[in-house]
Amino acid sequence: MWDEPIVSNKNEVKGDEMTGSANNPAQTAEAVERLEPDDISCSRGMATWLSTHQVSLAISSYQTGQLFLVGVKPSGGIHFHAIGTGRAMGLWAEPQRLILGTANQVIRFENILEDDQRVGDADKYYVPRVAHTTGDLDIHDIVVTDDGSIVFANTMYSCLSTLHPIHSFAPWWTPDFISKHAAEDRCHLNGIALKDGKPAYVTMVSRADVINGWRDRRDEGGCLIDIASNEVITEKLSMPHSPRWHKGELWVINSGTGHLGVIDLASGAFQPRCFLPGFARGLAFHKNHAIVGLSLPRDGSFKGLPLDEELRKRDADPWCGVQVINLATGDVVEWIRFRGVVKEMLDVCTLPGVRLPSGASPTSSEMSSLRTIASVSKQVETA
User: Fold this and answer.
1) Contact indicator for 359, 126 with CB cutoff of 8 Å
2) Domains identified in the chain, total number
3) Segment 33-61, tens digit of pLDDT
């Protein structure tokens, strides 16, 4: 536990609390145990930004198997809570509900607190209530449509999918160039943009139709496709991720070059708005700000990209963490940085109206004794 913020210099404040829930995989439990206060740092204004904007953050880190919840304590210090989930992948978040893809499940967490209830200082406490076992699908983006359906990027099978009561998944949409649903990660389909409550656009690293074919097209060949028409809007991106429709513009992270920007739907041109010092994945918006997740480039998929040269040009080291960007200026206004055992982020979501989120791990001993009862309203019959 970290009781008070530690000011290390005029620009940086250390996180003031971290709680962890152990997870079955040994490496994940060890990672939580080794996470030290110095491994997480924040900009001085991060807690104030969250408090002023009345929002908290949820961040998935598949490399450590953690779902990080970030809020503000009553004392004003920033608060981190880690939930061990195993391979934490695509994430959908609402104030009352979290939906997370893991190594072989889609888990639905529900907030069990009423408005006047607290667990410690937490005003939301997320408990796993439903786990749909899918097998390993390498799930990336997850969205909830306007009719309540869960749709996810089934990266392993190169399609968008929904959950099925009997089977691992049901294909919902497949690119027209994919000839077969096979567990081959052919094009690395990874991102979903909702528009008017329905999936409208997807990103993928290439249009390959052979096993792991996308790996030979990482520099250029990244696609953004219109779901309704199957039109390829562009295939000149570099490992694109996290398409999002926001205020009339289609935003996307061009991860291979390190840029956040928008797509001109008429020409397909990518218009960069700011540079991100790391392999960026995970994008959320809150009012006039973008919140972006950053990972350290690793050997293999992330090496040898234009991002390497962009970092060299700026004499910059890559980041792992989250940056908050002012959309009007493209400036980074606040940030969270992870060092040590945490090296990769996958997704980031906002929790509007939530001050301090917390929760329980699906594998924790707490789940055996954490029992809640729904209130029952009695109806009085009248003659």
Assistant:
1) yes
2) 1
3) 456 667 899 999 999 999 999 999 999 99
